[in-house]
Design brief:
Layout (H helix, E strand, L loop, with lengths): L1 H31 L15 H9 L10
Length: 66
C-alpha cells in the first residue's frame, strides 16, 4: 500500500510541475505579447526549475530542444 501511495504522490507532483510550467510559459508569453517569445528564449533566461520540468516534459514534441 505504501508503494502504491508513493507512486500516486509522485504522479501528482509531476502534474503540479506541469501546471507550474504552463503557468510560467503563458505568463511569459503574455508579458511579451506573443507565444513566439519562447522560440528565441535563451536557456539561461529560463528559470532552473522550469528547465528541469521542461526536460522531464521533453516527450512533448514542441518542447524538444534541437
Amino acid at each position: 500500500m505504501k508503494k502504491a501511495l508513493s507512486e500516486k504522490i509522485r504522479k501528482l507532483k509531476e502534474c503540479v510541475d506541469a501546471v507550474d510550467y504552463k503557468v510560467w510559459y503563458y505568463e511569459k508569453a503574455k508579458q511579451a505579447g506573443t507565444l513566439s517569445v519562447h522560440n528565441t528564449m535563451k536557456k539561461e533566461d529560463i528559470p532552473p526549475r522550469m528547465q528541469t520540468i521542461r526536460s522531464r516534459m521533453s516527450h512533448v514534441t514542441r518542447l524538444k530542444e534541437e
